[in-house]
Amino acid sequence: MTAPIDTRVAVVILQHPQERREALSTAPLVCATLRQARLVVGLSWPSLARIAGEPADPRRWAVLHLGAARPVSAERRELCVVDRHGAPVANPEAILAGLSGIVLLDGTWSQAKTLWWRNPWLLKLPRLVLDPPQPARLDRVRREPRYEALSTLEAVALTLRHLEAGPEAADTLLAALDRMIAAARPHSARAPARRRTMPPRRR
């Protein structure tokens, strides 16, 4: 295990308590890889500052949203900033450049929805939606429900690839995931599909 690396953007993962039972959960690996990553387990928290561990401006934090972006053109984007109705916002570059942290919900679809509705302060954050260019790597050892479903680690890596100045954070995360997959593959049968927290691909 290499030493944790620094990132400009902080990462906070809200994990549903039942997700702790998942043998191949990738959230702890994110925190072991990134110095600015934090894992908090529970169902509800009073504010962004409580989970961030310090004063935090909601305008400078974003949440990885469960919904899909509504396409406004044929152009495909791996990362979109959307409004409450799922429509891409104007001038997303300014929002992304100003972010100091991101929040992810870790669990099955139903567990992630529970976290979303039990933490109304999430509604104040800009919303990010991913459209991954490749299928999940974790699908090699744990069957995912759809081509575009990502593990939490892969979602963090793809997001940071668009937010950090260089690819180091994303590449280091994916290398750590590949090592975990290699270690798990000889001992793991492919598990039944689980509904992950990533949004469906835009068609």
Radius of gyration: 16 Å
Overall morphology: globular
Largest sheet: 6 strands, mixed
Spans of at least 5 consecutive residues whose pLDDT stays below 50 are 190-203
Number of helices: 6
Number of domains: 1
Average pLDDT rating: 84
Helix content: 25-40%
- What order do the strands of the largest sheet run in, or round the barrel if closed? 2-1-5-3-6-4
Number of strands: 6
Distance between the termini: 39 Å
The helix/strand class is alpha/beta
Helices and strands, in order, run as EHEHEEHEHEHH
Which strand-content bin applies to the residues?
A: 5-15%
Specify the oligomeric state. Answer: single chain
What is the topology?
Blueprint: E1 10-15, H1 27-33, E2 37-41, H2 48-52, E3 61-64, E4 79-82, H3 92-97, E5 101-106, H4 109-118, E6 127-130, H5 152-163, H6 168-184
Parallel strand pairs: 1-2, 1-5, 3-5, 3-6
Antiparallel strand pairs: 4-6
Helix pairs in contact: 5-6
